[in-house]
Structure formats: structure tokens, C-alpha cells
Amino acid sequence: MASGTNSTYAKLLSTQQQLDQCVPTQQHSTDGNHTRLNKYMNSFSAVQNNATPFPLVKFVAKSLLPTDFGDFNLFVYQDREGKEQLAIVRGNVAGKTSVLTRLHSECMTGDVFKSQRCDCGDQLQNALRKVEEEKSGVILYLRQEGRGIGLTNKIKAYELQEQGYNTVQANLMLGLPVDARDYSIGLAILQDLGVQSIRLLTNNPAKLEAFSNSLVKVVERVPLQIRPNEHNVAYLTTKRDVTGHYLNHLQNV
Ligand SMILES: [Zn+2]
Fold it and tell me: pTM here?
């Protein structure tokens, strides 16, 4: 686990950090910094073309995380863009099969402020409760706010939704994808944790699809159904009707 500290990727990151501090704001093609940058980029390409898999994430920190739901371990990983990606882990999951797992994409408004415009906050809390009940499991907290379009664009989309457009229409009107999320980082973290197979907490068929070519197999889908409120019922029915989420409990809505 977390064997990446001496990896080529780790060394490149270190080089990148050094370069970040010295790359000039104005490009001078003959100066030393530029030469060093080229050298770095060449070595980066060499690693990418190498047959050895180039890790998507690097383990960087771990600590205990006592919460209202139970006591977890928090693992911090760094992705290739330098973003911190989190794994909230209960119990020893290395080498285990059928590990209860949630891939949760960051939603600041829902997770932190308990916004009722979506079901993210409730889903995160329910996942933490279920993992605690089993005394084993993983919640991956993936830094892809607003289904990957970012907070600002999400808020712009909310404004359009206030004019009567649904979540899909609003994204398209802004020239953005309906769903820009990428689960490959989550899969890489599960592999690093040594998880063999999972029971995936989700209503989203795209998340199941993401595991189709993964070394980590999904042995079961576990529904994560949230009771709708007056603010998120349209959001949830759009998920059911347009993006194909498994939300049969909304059948009378
Ligand atoms: Zn949300």
C-alpha cells in the first residue's frame, strides 16, 4: 500500500514542485529554467510511454478521523493535477472482497451546507452510516465538484434552473457536458488500498460502467435512496428519467 513515495511519479512531482518555484512568468527560450522545463517534460513523456503503468494517484498522508458517524481512517492522495483526493476507510480493507464502497463526488453546497437542491449531503451521510454499521468499507471523496464542471458553473446552472430548465438542459445551455465526472482516480485509490472487490453504494449506472474494465470488481450494487423534498424532487426525477439513475422509489412522483 502507498508504495509510491519512492516511485518515478513521486520524483517527477518533486521536480515539478521545484520547477513551479522557478519557472519564469515570461518565457525566455534560452534561459536555464526553460531548459530544465523541457528536460522535465521529456522525462514525463518517457514515463508515460513506458510499459510500466503510470500511477494516477500518490499516497501522501493518513490519520485517524473520529466523526459523528464513527471512527474512520482518512487517507489523502494527490492526483496528477496536484488535487487532494480522499479515502475515508473503516476497518482493514486490504485484500478484502465485497467491501462496501461509495464513490462520492464533492458537492460543497450539499455536503457542507446541506443544500436541499440535491441529494449529495444525504447520500454522503447515509454512506458513512452504512459503512459504520458494517464496521468495514470505503468512501472515496473525489474532488470533482458539480459533476466535474466546478462550483461556479454549478451555481450558474442553478440560476438557469430557477428559470425552469432542468439540470441537463442548464448544463447544455452553458456549453458544458451533462456529466464530466471521471472515476478512474477512485478506481486507482481502491487498488492502492488493496481492495479486491466491492459492493457499490450507488444509483448511478455510469459508476457501475466505470468498473467494467477495472481490476477491482463490483459484486453487487447497493441502492442509496433518499426521500425527496420539494426542492430536489425535480432534480431527482431528471436523474431517473434523463440520466437513467435507479430511483424506483420515485415511481409515484
Ligand atoms: Zn449536490
Answer: 0.74
